[in-house]
Structures
1.
Amino acid sequence: MPDGFCSSACFLFLLPDPFQEEMFICLLLQLFFSCSFSTTEDGGDSRRDFSQGSDSKEYCLSDRDIVEVVRTEYVYTRPPPWSDALPTIHVVTPTYSRPVQKAELTRLSNTFLHVPNLHWILVEDSQRRTALVTRLLRDTGLNYTHLNVETPRNYKLRGDMRDPRIPRGTMQRNLALRWLRETFNRNNSQPGIVYFADDDNTYSLELFEEMRTTRRVSVWPVAFVGGLRYESPKVNAAGKVYGWKTVFDPHRPFAIDMAGFAVNLRLILQRPQAYFKLRGVKGGYQESSLLRELVTLNDLEPKAANCTKILVWHTRTEKPVLVNEGKKGFTDPNVEI
């Protein structure tokens, strides 16, 4: 590679935008002539046979490599600019205090920052909105609503069959539904989608574009649930959901994970009686307790290539081992983690 090439390439990124195109063309010409026509001091051809074990990176980069480097100059706007042409996705996330809470919410917010027209409704299971979550939300730059409601202690305890504890996050999701109904009237013309996203799951950006066209209730597979690689709606040749690929109680009205469906906001507003039931609902039936108030099986809209693609994973963060902290704590408790 001729002397000065690296300095020229670096100089490209220091120039103002109007000069970059001209400089880029010059660099490509310089690269072409230096790679194709340069000779050694004794007049021989300086081109090497890269197939004989030498590393091509030592010599000349291809034009394609240069173009890829230039592309990294594009700066992504986070979050994307708001568009009146897109429905708003209202993402409801219950959360609770634990050592990995901030890490989980940071990871999740980094995903949401890439989704246009997203409104994050974060609901803490606590007596008051905590400073940790307040700061995190403020620093993300996302559009958000911060709520809190504490699950009563007797609901958290595992009781007998007559009084089992309710699944975590139920009261928080219900508060978000109430907030939506109080904020938007039943005749609201603003298009929107409601999605329940737990703070420890993993979401593909494609998932949010899939759900954005939901007319009533859309559904898709979820990985790592029910002791399976994935659970999924069964879809027939006509594109209709007729059952469920699951081992756990497949005869549930809607045998689907919380991460596996989205609801049109207008439907939520039109059915004020639709909530997640707190009492008399067995494990795995929370989703059904809401959906049966909204739609029938025939109304479901399969997404993700007719439920053949995995776009959400029911992941779990390993609980950190903090045995060396001791009872009094070894590290500074004022340092937020």
2.
Amino acid sequence: MDKIVSRRKFVRAFFTELASKITEPGPEGDVTEFRVKMDSLKEKCQVLADLDAAVFESLVSADVEPQENEVVEEMEVAQSYQDRFAVTLFGLAGNILSMIIWSRPHLKSTSSVVLVALAVSDTLVILNSIWLELAINYSLLKQYRGLPGFDKYVIYIHNYYMQWSFILSEVVYRMAATASLYLTVIITLERYICICHPFWFEEWCSYSRICKSVAATIVFSIAYRMSNFWEARVIRVRVIHEGKITPIYIRELTEYVYLRYIHVWTFIFVDYLLPLTFIVVLNTITTIKLRRMNKIRHEISDERKNENKLTMMMLYVVLEFLVCTSMSGFISLETIFPRAEPRSGSEKLLLRQLGDSFNTLNSSVNIATYFSSWQPFRRSFMKMCCGKTRSSRNHQQTIDLQDITT
């Protein structure tokens, strides 16, 4: 960079001097002075050519001749993903199993509709996050190691169609995350009405109304995030790679500054403050009411006990969602607001890994809560994965409804 600045200063001074000498009036027929000026011009042109070649050589050598132990190996890139790869596979398998089990006829209820939609949203979050993080974390890892920014892999992912696929994946990821957030709000509201206003539950939380609410949430998430398609565009730039000028495609934000501020504050309120406040308040009220009801357990019917246990399972799901979303939100807010000093490569990589880990964990662990907290789900899971259960083998055995609620 210092050589480039020196070259620019030299070129500016050279052409200033050349212009002054050409426009300077001299005596007619002074051939000697003219030859002296031409010799000086040739010398400076040669110096300029040598300097230009040196700068070009330094730029090329920076890309093709990295220092020893500065090459990113494939195993190192895989190592940065190994802590989350198992969680991601577990989440994909768990969400697919959750969709299958909750859609079974004997578990059909208003809660199962929301949980199936939640599993679909979490699956989309995981799949799109995998595609997005491959390029982002690879670039951050190279920046953290202080390596040149371009190699064959980076050149490949910076083609036109790959960049548009990243934009599409990011928008779908945001749509799915928003849907997951507000589906959790529906779960919270549905359990609140069931526990605190049981006489209104059949009317307010009927099967058709819950289906309409889920559909409205999905439509809202798509419409709310649709504008993200116009926040970026793909432009063509040229870089020097392996001594050649290579064209690549990169994303460029198209937002104006004031629109970016509006987007940030909308993100804070719509994606975090309002729904999380709603979830915290209603779950606190539901938990207090549920504890009071458990003190008079002997007066509660079996059906009511079943609803209470389902509510406890939902509270565990919401609590896990609240913790992971809050941590991810704090990290996102910390990266949004500007700082006096730019972050180093290690800080960017650490923040990105933490935020992605909480998002992946949030979308992956629901099946563990279902399995550990809800007996009908556990039985359906064991029957599907491990064959027939003990009760299904003995067709003469009488099934007690009390056994389902315990």
3.
Amino acid sequence: MDKNSMVSFAEALQAVAAIGTATSSLIQMLDSGRQSDGALREKLADMQLQVATLKTHMAELVDENLELRLEMRQSKSLPHLDRQGELYFDREGDGPFCSHCYEKGTCTRCISFSDDIRKYGNADFKCPACKTVYCLPRDDFHEGK
């Protein structure tokens, strides 16, 4: 979910307040007994629309919350890696891991030799997740175990 489509908590609270106001107005209309059925139906339709809007806002907030929890869980489970040149390796020398994914907090696996880019005596790697390609001279590459 991108930042432009996320609903704020304040917007959800505004929707709740609007429903509260509409409910109070509807109760006053019923108490006065002077309103026509058409006016009551219109108020009820407005409330239904506000409830639907609130449900949408709440669903977006729940989705955002789940995404943030998942990101937190993933970032806590990432291994500690040391940067060597353009790439990351773990303390045992295993790797390489994609710099782009690791810095975003989504690194979960080693990158591998690119099948379509082996040439010129370089160690070429392609991240399977983000598709970033790394082209390193062989003497810059520290092969893992």
